[in-house]
Design goal:
Blueprint: E1 3-4, H1 22-27, E2 34-36, E3 39-40, E4 42-43, H2 54-67, H3 77-97, E5 105-108, H4 111-126, E6 132-136, H5 145-154, E7 157-161, H6 171-176, E8 182-188, H7 200-209, E9 213-217, H8 229-232, E10 236-240, E11 251-255, H9 257-262, E12 273-276, E13 281-283, H10 297-313, H11 315-333, E14 339-342, E15 353-358, H12 363-372, E16 375-376, E17 378-380, H13 385-391, E18 396-400, H14 407-423
Parallel strand pairs: 4-16, 6-7, 6-8, 8-9, 9-10
Antiparallel strand pairs: 1-2, 2-3, 5-11, 10-11, 12-13, 14-15, 15-18, 17-18
Bound molecules: ligand 7TS.
């Protein structure tokens, strides 16, 4: 059962040079007042999903309390209010990612559904036997499996850009794999295991020369830095609200308008039609053509509060804060004996997600021991089994940072690691 601690950590005197005032941010997250096993919660699993600030929790509750009704249907006041709030989030998303039009923003359930939408809707109509789908060796299963499924149905071939020994993408070899047969290049913005940030604009430029479309899995990108679809010149971008302080059950697909116009709907039902007769149906305008059925109304509305929260902090400050913290963590991790970090060692060129193994300690055992200390990290294959095979691991431990983490959390992790080391006689 949850317990609430009254005094959790020493007050920090905010340092003017630091990008974020973490102490103030922490006050916004009710869950951070919890203890786990009588220890203050140290949450280091934001790459899996983020905790929610009270602004987001309140926005969702407010909608249910005051403005909840179905959207796009009713002429009555409550439905008009809910529709305005729902569509307001769409505008906020378009602004956040530099999309020219709200027609290009489709709400889905998550990144996974967004990628499936592109795979099924664009892929099934445009791919034929012998066409190539180019991915990378560092993808999450949600940017692998949908393409395997579509390749099976169309006869297209899936290829993977390789990694270099330093775990970054081998861009020279990767770009050479783009050829006239390549119809889709689908790449993660940031690896959820390695923390590698990929050179999307360069990949997109080469893909465009060969007429391939570019899909970006930005599940770990949009939450942590300024991501602009126009600057990267890409066709599709997928991400999830729950990894950026927003609610679970809301995802985004950005799609270039002319491509979305030409695509068939992914799912059929209410709201996505213009008219239906006994003989067939015609489709609604963008973006609603791709939003069949009653959407996740209150959570989409709550997502806006998350975007506003991040924008108030400033995405550049969010990124800077994560670099500072990652630099500190990488430095401190050098103290640990027989310790391997999978990913670049330079904080400036990577994200704040650090995968590691400690020799002689299974990652799951490590995560269990850390949990006893109130520290939440992820252990497992992180839904990237092909990458695990390349790393020669069945699992890694992984700590990931967000806006409410500070050096105290890294220090707690390091104390936990040495405690685990002692436990396993290292
Ligand atoms: N792509 C990447 C790069 C991810 O990190 C994840 C989730 C997804 C896609 C899928 O997102 P979803 O919202 O559709 O589930 N990554 C993780 C993780 O690293 N641990 O748990 C989920």
């Amino acid at each position: 059962m949850a317990t609430v601690s009254t005094k959790l950590r020493d007050p920090i005197v905010p340092d003017k040079r630091e990008a974020l005032d973490v102490q103030r941010i922490r006050d916004d997250f009710p869950v951070l007042k919890r203890t786990i096993n009588d220890k203050p919660l140290v949450y280091l699993d934001s790459a899996a999903t983020t905790q929610k600030p009270k602004q987001v929790i309140d926005a969702i509750a407010d909608n249910y309390r005051h403005n909840y009704a179905n959207v796009h249907r009713g002429v009555y006041t409550l439905s008009a209010e809910a529709t305005d709030l729902y569509e307001g989030t769409r505008s906020a998303v378009a602004t956040l990612i530099g999309a020219p039009s709200t027609k290009e923003i489709i709400f889905t359930r998550n990144t996974t559904e967004s990628i499936n939408l592109v795979a099924y809707s664009w892929g099934l109509s445009n791919l034929k036997s012998g066409d190539e789908i180019l991915l990378t060796e560092m993808e999450h299963h949600s940017n692998l499996v949908p393409w395997y499924m579509i390749a099976k149905r169309t006869g297209a071939i899936v290829r993977h850009m390789p990694l270099r020994a330093d775990y970054t993408l081998d861009l020279t070899a990767g770009l050479d794999m783009i050829n006239p047969q390549t119809k889709i290049v689908s790449v993660s913005h940031t690896s959820n295991v390695l923390g590698v940030i990929n050179p999307i604009a360069e990949i997109a430029e080469r893909a465009r020369k060969h007429g391939a479309i570019v899909v970006v899995d930005a599940a770990q990108g949009v939450p942590h830095s300024k991501v602009d679809v126009s600057q990267m010149d890409i066709d599709f971008l997928a991400f999830s609200a729950h990894k950026m302080l927003g609610p679970s059950g809301v995802g985004v697909l950005y799609g270039r308008e002319e491509l979305l116009e030409a695509m068939e709907p992914f799912m059929g039902g209410g709201d996505m039609i213009s008219s239906v007769t006994l003989d067939g149906a015609t489709w609604n305008e963008l973006p609603w053509k791709f939003e069949a059925g009653t959407p996740n109304i209150a959570d989409v509305i709550g997502f806006r509060a998350a975007i506003e929260y991040l924008e108030k902090l400033g995405m550049d400050n969010v990124r800077k804060h994560e670099i500072e913290l990652t630099e500190y963590a990488l430095e401190r991790m050098k103290e640990v004996k027989d310790f391997t970090i999978f990913g670049p060692q330079d904080a400036e060129s990577r994200a704040g997600v650090i995968s590691f193994v400690q020799e002689g300690v299974h990652p799951h055992d490590l995560a269990t021991i850390l949990d006893r200390e109130g520290i939440a990290i992820r252990a497992g294959h992180h839904c990237a089994q092909p990458l695990m095979e390349i790393l020669g691991q069945t699992a890694t431990a992984r700590a990931s940072f967000y806006v409410h983490n500070d050096r105290h959390d890294v220090d707690a992790l390091m104390a936990g690691l040495s405690c685990a080391g002692r436990f396993f006689g290292r």
